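Example 3.2
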Amino acid sequence: MAILKIKNSEIYYEIRGKGKPLILLAGLASDSQSWSTVMNRLSKKNMLIMPDNRGCGRTLCPLDEITIPGMAGDVIALMDHLKIEKADLLGHSMGGYVALQLCLENPNRFDRLILAATSAFTNKRNQALLNDFVSYRKNGMDIHEWFRCLFFWIFTRKFFEDEKMLDLSLDYSVEYPYLQSLEQFKKQVNALCDFDVSERLAEIDHETLIISGKEDILFDPFESVRVLSAIKNASVTLIENAAHSIHVENPKDFVSTVIAFLSTSGL
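Structure, written as tokens:
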């Protein structure tokens, strides 16, 4: 656990394991702790570097500086601070946006790229959906109900069959000590809606793995794969029994897929 101070911001990050650096970038409303289901196994093969993105967790920054380029800049600053010249990169959902930004603007700092449950832009349906979630909180929706509605979009139908696990997950989310504020959530949503690199994907020549949960209804796997396949050296894996939160719902297959890719590929 450590803090990197950059101008008027403080970037919180954690490091686990030893070996080739692998930077894990979390999604909307998620921070470094979202990797808890997979960090132990992944850290046996790699040194994991897990920052809290701007607008989440224990990272502190001005609200008007919560942008995808800003999050990408924090990663480069963190790599410089840790004296890491090159790393592999794994981004989930919004973290995938940050990963794409990094590979486009700093291509020589990264080897392999893993994009999980993400795309190159936020479609109009998802923009409306996410802004509705902003309005729900702004209008005073009960936070338990808010998370429950969110879970409908990020987990499979099977997840809801285990009522005990559902209740535990809701309680954990609501009682999390670093719960994202409404203002931070809104700024991250704005950052997502402003991002679009779909016309630049052909510029990326990193060996890339696209991972999608087969039941993802937020980032439809077929649409996402179609968009991201514009990356020259991209391969695709669809994971069964998972929706948007692949590494939470099916951590075993997620980790196996990541390790296999990192172990057998390389530029």
